[in-house]
Amino acid sequence: MPPNKNVLFIMCDQLRWDYLSCYGHPHLHTPNIDALAARGVRFNRAYVQSPICGPSRMSFYTGRYVRSHGSSWNNFPLKVGELTLGDHLRPLGVDTVLVGKTHMKADKEGMERYGIDEGTVIGARLAECGFDVFERDDGLHPDSGYAPNPRYNDYLRTRGYTEENPWNTRSNAVVPDNADESGLGWFLKYSNRPANVAEEDSETPYLTRRFMDFVNERPDDSPWLCHLSFIKPHWPYIVPAPYHNMYGPETWLPPVRSEQERQNPHPVYDAFMQARVSQSFAREEVRNTVMPAYMGLIKQIDDQMGHLLAFMRDKHLMDNTMIVFTSDHGDYLGDHWLGEKELFHDPSVRVPLIVYDPSPEADATRGTVSEELVEGIDLAATFQEYFGGEAIPHRLEGRSLLPLLHGVTPDDWREFAFSEYDYSATPARSLLKQSPSECRLIMAVSRQWKYVYAENFQPMLFNLENDPEELYDLGDQAEYAEILATLKDVVFAWSRKQNQRITTSDQDIIGMDGGAEEAGILIGYWDEGELQPDSA
């Protein structure tokens, strides 16, 4: 491995796969992200392992499915001992650093049980999802539980924003028109008004500059992986001028939904349609107010990507740094009568994924599009191989993307991608009268089918070839009984795979063959003669 090989791992929060011009959006032009795609591979069928922030990110960082790492909802701690990117890459000599969001909740109970102090290097890494923190910024909304490093507020105060929490009252708020208005961006009615902060002081430019600070402050050229994790375009849907009014009604894509979807819907789907955020986004007034902000936030990210890529060129980092651009999940924006994310329609579970590999082996695939099914957990295995590590499939459940980046599709590449959702912490559990352990959904998606297993309920089924917009659920139709049974078997076979034996590899086990006899441990032999090679 060259001594200065690096990875810049960029993640947006709640960015839909289809809201970039390189993915086909006709009005939201993202030339800088498109330029990255022109230098790398754009994966068109990338799926996250859970359609909500925390568990999706924990899968990215561990390289493991949610059923394996166990952090199945926001604020559910990642257990002590779960290996993350830092654990895999530091033995290879790679610094693994965070700038931005992880949404990780530390397992403080586990750390206390084992006497691990958060103030130590090991304790800090366990509390920060395995990263060395250059700057963590999960958003500073009050009582969020995700404000361990409030440097952004400190920065805002140096810029003259003197409130107690200027993140809340300036970066994510507007100037009230009258005394009856709070101006806080939590209220969707303010989304089409400019944030009460200068554009250069808003979150996305700030985090971009902090990545540049990280590079400039490094004492040497030793290898690094930096996770630059933007907070936006996640709500609050609010963006500073001039981005707040760049996109008028003629640029908005119509919502993908039909009245048929509300006729006898799947019970779980129906419960999520009843959520407050879904009821809001079903109203045209709400959607029309939010759309300019959501699109403006993405445009701002693209502009910052332009600054970032220029910086990388100036620092001569484009020749030795892999760049990954992705998102932790999408956003319904009123599609399918839903708001937020959480279920498994493509607007929620499918994400953009662009990978630029600077190595000569990737020259043949530059500017190409891959239609192979890929998963968020594939990135950890990709980084492991990129930095010269050997494959560790008993620990990393994803698969390295390097063969695809180098123009080779393995014969045994996956036929299905999987995602999971534990909705026990949502109002849907009470509406459906389910116990927490029953609130499990599992998606299996192939090129043609998307199947969702729902504990205690019928499955959902979509034929993606005939119904790419996923408007017609076939899960209750008898004529699809055979395909439903087949896909249920696929889900159950996946769920039975070995996923907890991370301390001993398959090769270790194969190497044990005959070891007991060689060590003089003789079990089941009648007499000494059976030890002779020809006694069989």
Structure in words:
The chain has 536 residues and is α/β, with parallel strands linked by helices. The chain is 30% helix and 15% strand. The chain has helices at 31-39, 53-62, 66-69, 85-89, 108-113, 121-127, 151-158, 166-171, 203-217, 267-273, 276-281, 284-314, 346-349, 378-386, 402-405, 427-432, 481-495, 506-510, 515-518, and strands at residues 6-13, 41-47, 95-100, 132-136, 224-233, 321-327, 350-356, 368-375, 417-422, 440-445, 449-454, 460-463. Strands 4-3-5-1-6-7-2-8 form an eight-stranded mixed sheet, with helices on both faces. It has a four-stranded antiparallel sheet with strand order 9-10-11-12, covered by helices on one side. The chain is globular. The model has no long low-confidence stretch (mean pLDDT 94).
